[in-house]
Amino acid sequence: MVRQPPIRYRTHRRPIWPLAIGAAALGALLTVTACSSVRAPAGVQPVGRFNVDRYAGHWYEVARIDHRFEKGLVNTSAHYSRNEDGSVKVVNRGYDPERGRWREAEGRARFVEDPGTASLKVSFFGPFYGGYHVVALDEDYRWSLVIGSDLDYLWILSRTPTLPEGVREQLLDKARALGVDTDKVLWVPQGQPAPDLRS
Questions:
Q1: What whole-number percentage of the chain has pLDDT above 70?
Q2: CA 53 to CA 86: how far, in whole Å?
Q3: Predicted confidence band of residue 191 (pLDDT cuts 50, 70, 90)
Q4: DSSP strand E in the chain: where?
Q5: Chain-centre distance for alpha carbon 36
Q6: What is the pLDDT of residues 104-158, one digit of tens each?
Q7: What is the DSSP letter of 140?
Q8: How far is Cα 187 from Cα 179, in angstroms, rounded to an integer?
Q9: I need a surface site. Which of 58, 99, 131, 188 has the fewest CB within 10 A?
Q10: 8 vs 177, which has greater pLDDT?
């Protein structure tokens, strides 16, 4: 009797290259998504001759267009400081009166291009960035108007809990000229009554 060679069954493995291409495409898409929304909106010009070291320090958020991540918060503030690698450490803080506690988020900002232009991208999680563009700035760095990735993101910051006389209307006029719907601007209660800072 003639012995037959053993039958070898070919296992059908899926080729790995479609998965690799798919992963690369997904990575590229995430990168584009993360970086595409950091530039200033059309018609918005960030200030020049910007000095990030003068901008560093504590700012009160006296006004904003409200969004989910800040909704309901009062006594909101931002603190900026330089990191050794040239990026900017960002600490946002606000008090949640409904829950009776402080909420804090720490992120990192980098300049979009030239460090002398007040156009930055900020990330609070992973590779995802949002735009941060200073479009009006007091010559003594006492107040600033910031626009985000689009005109639905606006913050008015001040070194003090209230703005100097006349500045509020000046900044609202600037925002309107850029196309911001200033009816959406929320003026943030600051300091009165002051919640317990130890909580």
A1: 78
A2: 11
A3: confident
A4: 57-65, 74-82, 88-96, 101-111, 119-125, 128-137, 143-147, 154-158, 185-187
A5: 13
A6: 999 999 999 999 999 999 999 888 999 999 999 999 999 999 999 999 999 999 9
A7: T
A8: 19
A9: 99
A10: 177
Q: Which amino acid is at 54?
A: R
Question: Helix, strand, or coil here: 160?
Answer: coil
Task: State residue 3's pLDDT score.
Answer: 53
Q: What is the identity of the amino acid at 19?
A: L
Residue where the block lists tokens 């800072």: 197
Task: Give the other-Cβ count within 10 Å of 31's Cβ.
Answer: 11
Residue 37 contacts by C-beta under 8 Å, 6 or more apart in sequence? 129, 130, 131, 149, 150
* Token duo for residue 164: 């100097």
Distance in angstroms (rounded) separating the CA atoms of residues 161 and 59: 9
Largest distance between two CA atoms of the chain:
108
Output the pTM of the full model: 0.79
**Spatial CA neighbour of 129 closest among 112, 146, 104, 113:** 112
